[in-house]
Amino acid sequence: MKNSNMKRRTFLKVTTVAGGGLLVGCSFSSPKLMSTPQASKEELGMWVRINTDNKITLILPSSEMGQQVHTGQAMLVAEELEADWKTIQVVTAHVNEEFKRSSSGGPHHSSSQGTGGSSSIMGWWEKLRHVGASTREMLIEAAAQKWGVSVSECEAKNGSIHHLSSDRKLSYGQLASTAGKLSPPDNPTLKNPAQYRFLGKSMPKLHTPSIVNGTAQYGIDVRRPGMLFAAVRQSPVFGGQLKSYDEAAAKAVTGVEAVVPIPRGRFAFGSTGDGIAVVADTTWNAQKGLEAMDVKFVGGDTLGLNSSKVSEKLKSSLNDMGKVDVQAVKVLEVEYEVPFLHHATMEPLNCTADVSTDSCRVWVPSQKQDDCMEAAKEVTGLSQDKIQIHTMMMGGSFGRKSTKEYVKQALIISKFIQKPVQVIWSREEDTQHGTYRPASMSRFQIGLGKDGKPIQWENQIAQQSSKMLNQVPPLRWFNFDPMTYPASVHDGIIFNLPKKHFYKVEGVKMSHTPVDFGVPVGSWRSPPNIINVFYTESVMDELAHLAEIDPLEYRIKFITESPKHKAVLEQVAKQAGWGTPLPEGHGRGIAINDWFPLDEDVTVVAQVAEVSITNRGKLKVHRVDCVVDCGLAVNPDSVKAQMEGSIIMGMSAAMFEEITIEKGQVEQSNFDDYRIAKLRDAPEINVTIVESEASPTGVGEPGVSPIVPALTNAIFAATGKRIRKLPIGRQKLV
Amino acid sequence: MTTLKINGKQHKIDVEPDTPLLWALRDNVNLTGTKYGCGIQQCGACTVLIGKRPVRSCGITVGEVAGKDITTIEGLSPETRHPVQKAWIAEQVPQCGYCQSGQIMAAVSLLERKPNPTDKDIDRGMLNLCRCGTYTRVRKAIHRAAEMMKEVS
User: Which of A142, A550, B83, B98 stands 20 to 30 A from B114 (CA)?
Assistant: First the structure.
């Protein structure tokens, strides 16, 4: 792994405060602040705070959204610290340079404070262990000093330092003050894997107890003294303007205190229209006020757009790129299409802000603390030192809570009323103002040689480019969206990207046309693979059948340079009983994925789905087998949970989900018309994690994509019907 | 003034009788364990018990439940000693956890009605949505809780 940038010398600073314990912070990011007598506990103890009562607080750089990153990151620190797991508590870091990083080794991420790309464990793997090891060594030195012995006679174990030749021991709390006076080591010694007590073992998730007794605090649960609640309505046509509203009618509703217009904003993901908020003593009264107000909007960027026009535009963009004359023994010519998708997090967007003339506090479920800070600076005009961003637990995110429009709304309203306020989007607002997985269409024209292998592979893609990429150098200089290239089993080298596709295929040519519909699009758990892997793994399956070769065997022919991919694919096939007889009407489908497609170090996941289709065309998923190689699985049960959840979410997307547009606005508005998978849809899922001593790679996203083509390939195996357009539920299966 | 009996305790609140129980719990009584998910009784995140019956609190008004026994997630066992909570911890069910208070309340009620639920009973009885996809573990945890409840009785 490329972590040389993490290995900075003397990056730790330690301090004690009166009555406190050991505070481990850093020295290079804010040396001035660190040396001021006014510096707070938060500013000094940036990574670890050890109290004299032995309680240890770990300040973690990543946001918790269900991926169990808090537990995983705490394990990294606690392992090297030799902490007693029972004494660990965690908080998400405040906004500071110290917690910024380039979120993975690839060129696609700029340095920022946020969480995404399934990169929180791999990206902080070195640094968090380093923090733990440095702290441990200082505690050992403190004990050695107290006892007047050599450090080699002392050992750290489960929250205490033991003197080996006597039975003396001192707890971390007892040593904290002395340790705080020492200099941190330059190069602490990290454990070797054989010494691990936590890493690689399933640890119970830190937040589970508070979730099951209802005390866990999500963004939506923030309560501040004197706080009011706001309900918002935004132009249903994207980019539309506020036309009229009856303020008096809203204010006539019990509990309503204010009506606040929200100006439109342009963001990286697209444009929001105007909005308006009603502020009241409770969310219910705010919602009633909003209903009474009869808000009307006019105009907008998507006026006149509907879903057939989206399909037509994608299709005409493919046609503009032109078809190619493919000369071969056998030719496959197919078109694939996927719809817009919504994240549909169970916790809708919300944000709490408290803005006064000289300070600003924000409590927000967010993947992007940097952007929240920028929003706060922009709205309040205050400098960063007057602003505090508190990152709350998220009730799901999957990429959605990485924008700042909902944060700005809370800030604007709180600034207007000069009181703390919580904005909650109704489910309807949440559904109709998403940052959707883009709709996309792809055409493949592939000619096979006599041996069944492609000799010509022509591929065209039409979809919205991620606008975010255009802002990230050096990607903006590509006349191409690198996020589409894995859709075409391409060698990245053609586009000056380091990575090569694991399938080695000859004669690949591709083109991409970005199409802008004015519909906001963004990252939906595993972009771009949630689109690309459906394309590539369906096409591979189609080619295998065309060549009359078993789909597993066919894939392996092209995995000539990546033993890891081959091994995972073979293992999942074996686990699923690939090739063994099935009951009448059943079929199996296989697919593979790696993540992140532009990185050198990737997680590889392969899945086999077994389905059946009733005479009436009803699809049933019976069983899904999954094998994942993510290097060292830091917390195997979390890895397993991520695979299980990813399979359900990917199934849900493939089978049911679709955002459609009519008259420029999203047609769906709630869970009654945006259907997601229910418990009864969940199949038996068997996950196997490949044993590995390699450094860990991400697991939050890679499992979502392969299930989509695994399902459609299984449907083909069962029925001979090839699904080339999602969702499956819209297609006739018999 | 309306009086609500929540988790065995009387709460006097000043709200319109047409206020959904969900918002009264969250904004007036400050019991935030019951979650808002959809407002139209589709997702189940706001499930509470009225007596022993599971009810989606977004779809029932304060006026309708005044004086009745209301149990929320906070009333189950703050020390997480209820068998369903214990089973949820043992199976490590939650991911983001947002829907889980509703899932747990629905499971408690299901086990009241069906102490030995089959997979089919669980499919039919558990209609709460979970976006993280914890369903396979919800199913396991309900079976485990059923076993634990048998051992106790």
Answer: B98
